[in-house]
Amino acid sequence: MNDKEKLQKLKENYDNIEIPSELEDIVKNALYKNKYNNKVSLVKSLSLVASLVAVFVCSVNTSPLVANALDRIPVIGKIVKVVKFSNYSLDKNGLEVSVDVAKVEGLKDKKLEKSLNEELEKEAKALYQQYVEESKTLEKNNKQAHQMLRSSYEVKVNNEDILSLVVSNYEFQASSDTTRKFYNINKKSEKPITLKSMFENVDYINIISENIKSQMEKQMKLDSNSFYWINTGQDDDFKTIKENQGFYINEKDELVICFDKYEVGPGSMGAVDFTIPNEVLKPNLN
């Protein structure tokens, strides 16, 4: 029996399901009876509905045919979510560490999903282990530190097309620093999104960089507290973004280019982001 015949058989089984004749009456009675009887009838009706839902869930979990059929329904088959997988924590010798580990679930490409989750966990463990080793050194030398690490993640967008996830590491020791790593997935092609993949045979680096310079200049004119390393004549002036510059996609499907602290300005500016208007990018998007 091929897939088409299996689906047809599933449809016939569905059409032949006998719906209890009293279900409609129960619901109507629950809605229209007086306020005292209403509560009792409503509980009964909800119990019946819950039973039907349980049968449906059981069918999905036990029947590969039903699961495969549902997997072809866009809304049900493409639910991708990000959950908290684990947390590594340490509070010893003056070190306060908390590292949340994200886990992506629901990608059809299980190889990509596994690779992504392994990278998320590997980097979290490495960051945590760095502080564990430092704690051992402090303990050995009978010293105390005053350091803090908070590593967390944020889902910037998770719609039917794109998943954008940002992992932020905030470290404090005398002064603070924040670094970020970005994960962007095209949920339709189930492939990582890179800046290069978003543009086709165009000089996207200069197009984006020129827009960012324009935004920097505008911000400095409007706000005396804003300052970027641009047009100062120094070697560390911002010229162009990197080919692998960090970015995410926001809820408006806009490209947001991100810089860590000290990357394009003094520490007082912190980590900064620039949203690139769609009208700038659309003519060049792949």
Radius of gyration: 27 Å
CATH architecture of the largest domain: 2-Layer Sandwich
Mean pLDDT across residues: 81
* Helix fraction by DSSP (H/I, runs of at least 4): 40-55%
Distance between the termini: 41 Å
Number of helices: 9
Biggest sheet statistics: 6 strands, mixed
Q: Report the strand count.
A: 9
The multimeric state of the shown protein is single chain
Order of helices and strands: HHHHHEEHEEEEHHEEEH
Tertiary shape: flat
**Strand content range:** 25-35%
The CATH first-level class of the largest domain comes to: Alpha Beta
Secondary structure class reads alpha+beta
Q: Can you list the strand order of the major beta sheet?
A: 1-2-3-4-5-6
Uncertain runs with pLDDT below 50, 5 residues or more? Answer: 52-62, 67-77
Layout of SSEs?
Layout: H1 3-15, H2 22-32, H3 35-62, H4 64-71, H5 74-77, E1 81-92, E2 95-105, H6 110-140, E3 147-158, E4 162-173, E5 175-186, E6 191-192, H7 195-198, H8 204-222, E7 247-249, E8 255-259, E9 272-276, H9 278-281
Parallel strand pairs: 2-3
Antiparallel strand pairs: 1-2, 3-4, 4-5, 5-6, 7-8, 8-9
Helix pairs in contact: 2-3, 3-4
Q: Could you explain how this protein is built, in words?
A:
It is a single chain. The chain is α+β, with helices and mostly antiparallel strands. It has 3 domains: 3-74; 80-190, Heat Shock Protein 90, CATH 3.30.565; 194-286, Heat-shock cognate protein, ATPase (Actin, Chain A, domain 4), CATH 3.90.640. The protein is 43% helix and 26% strand. The protein contains 9 helices and 9 strands. Strand 7 (247-249) and strand 8 (255-259) form a beta hairpin. Helix 3 crosses helix 4 (64-71). Residues 52-62 and 67-77 have low confidence and may be disordered.
